[in-house]
Automatic annotation (TrEMBL):
The keyword Signal is annotated on this UniProt entry: yes
Signal peptide bounds: 1-20
Keywords for this protein: Signal
Coiled coil: none
Native species: Micromonas pusilla
Record protein name field: Thioredoxin domain-containing protein
Length: 187
């Protein structure tokens, strides 16, 4: 049953993603009168978390990170599997289609675009967003449309804290390549 649901959600993802970014092209949408009714079904993570993934998830939570996605988004679900079941308990996940996806369904309003609270966070999923330390309210950094490994998410957290990555330093000094923000160096 789960494989059948994944297959139908994957084909639906193309139509919804195209519609979320603008009108659905005729070649993608096929019949504009087609009835689409996909009830919201939360994705259930099967994989166990590594110790590293759990620690990163705790750091993401402490940093105020959010993960935006959609229940039908294959890459969003892959991102959850990479972190694992235990780590995802710490992640602030924002579901952008909490009411499902509906088009031309009798008795239902069409829902083919992300929920309003996801406005500005729909360019590409999965989308990680972290508030910048010391930044203006609403100032954030993130990574969109990429399945991130725990080490990549740890780097994102460090960059949100103002640490700068120096690839030359990383390759030549044996250090982790990060420089602390100027105000921390003086302490």
């Amino acid at each position: 049953r789960r494989d059948a649901m994944r297959a139908s959600l994957a084909s639906l993802a193309t139509v919804v993603a195209a519609n979320a970014l603008g009108p659905v092209p005729a070649a993608v949408a096929g019949d504009p009168n087609k009835v689409v009714a996909v009830e919201y079904t939360p994705y259930v993570v099967d994989s166990a978390s590594s110790a590293e993934a759990i620690e990163v998830a705790k750091s993401l939570k402490a940093a105020g990170a959010r993960l935006y996605g959609a229940f039908w988004c294959e890459n969003c679900n892959k991102q959850k599997e990479i972190l694992g079941k235990e780590a995802m308990e710490y992640v602030n996940y924002v579901e952008c289609f909490p009411d499902g996806v509906y088009q031309n369904t009798p008795g239902r309003a069409d829902v083919t675009k992300p929920a309003a609270f996801c406005e500005g966070y729909t360019d590409a999923w999965p989308l990680w967003v972290i508030p910048k330390d010391g930044g203006d309210p609403g100032e954030e950094i993130g990574v969109a449309g990429k399945i991130a490994k725990p080490k990549e998410l740890q780097r994102l957290i460090r960059e949100a804290k103002g640490e700068k990555f120096d690839a030359v330093k990383y390759l030549t000094s044996g250090s982790d390549g990060y420089e602390k923000p100027a105000d921390e160096k003086a302490e």
